[in-house]
Amino acid sequence: MRIDTLTYNNIHTQGAQRRAWLRQHSPQHLEQSAALMLHALQLRPSSTSPSTLVLGAGACTEIPLADLARDSDEVVLADLDRASMQQGRDELISPMLRRRVRLLVCDISGGISINLKCLIEQQPWEKLVSQGANEIFDAAACCLEQCSIPDPPAIKGLAASEFGVVVSSLILSQLFSYPLLDMLDHIQLLAPTILEEQERHRRYQDAAQSFRVRVMQAHLRLMRELLDTGGLACLLTDMRGFVFERDIEQRRAIPLVPRILPDLVRENFSVLQEAHWEWLSDLPDKGKLGRGYEVVGYVLTL
């Protein structure tokens, strides 16, 4: 499963070194991310929980962890990658602030990748390969349609109404993209020549889109459930990716998050602030395309 490689991938994409690169090439990304989280913290009333939760914390590359810890009784970093979270906490100079940060290793999705893997293993793939692409993508669509998505996920170590600020930090698209990539990885292993035909298979495309929407809705409900009365939520997510050769204006867009997200956000929260920006993750180099993302950030309340 793609989720099993998370720790290895994070080594190359997160942490102090990555933050220094972003300060040079995409300073707006760090500034906007921190500003929204700190705004949520500033708006938190004294009557609500003084604890803060960061879902998808990783190594806290975009997270102003010292500020969050300074203004919270406790900051819980929740992620599947303990090593990255430990790295983020270890960057704090003050022992007092480090003691306020608790690490929680968990699958924020509630086990979607495992649920999908079980369904994939039940399909008669060898027989389907002999029948052709349509049957293979029908079976893949069936797996996505039947996949259980906890709504909201029950995460051991997190209690309902526990936090005055809940942050979802650039994790939303990963929650559905990792299991979807697992599905395509399996198809590629079985029949690599038919992979491109997914775009022409309507049932599979509809199933994949519905899967994305169900995962997003479950994540938003998780944020709602964990938020104390009067608390604030901060949601940061990639909306679209893009690649480019030399001129960033000559770029090719890559859809990531369904356009329905703003509607889902407003069904679950009241929007206090909304911001849009772009960030670069890679520069073009020696035949390698440059890559970046369009991001939306919200400060939300119940």
> What is the residue-averaged pLDDT?
93
Q: Number of helical segments?
A: 12
CATH architecture: 3-Layer(aba) Sandwich
Largest sheet: 8 strands, mixed
Q: Return the CATH topology.
A: Rossmann fold
Record field, number of beta strands: 8
Rg, nearest Å: 20 Å
Query: What distance lies between the first and last C-alpha atoms, to the nearest angstrom?
Result: 35 Å
Order of helices and strands: HHHEHEHHEHHHEHHEEHEE
Molecular structure report:
By secondary structure, this protein is of the alpha/beta class. Helix content is 46%, strand content 23%. It is built from twelve helices and eight strands. Strands 1, 2, 3, 4, 5, 6, 7 and 8 form an eight-stranded mixed β-sheet that branches.
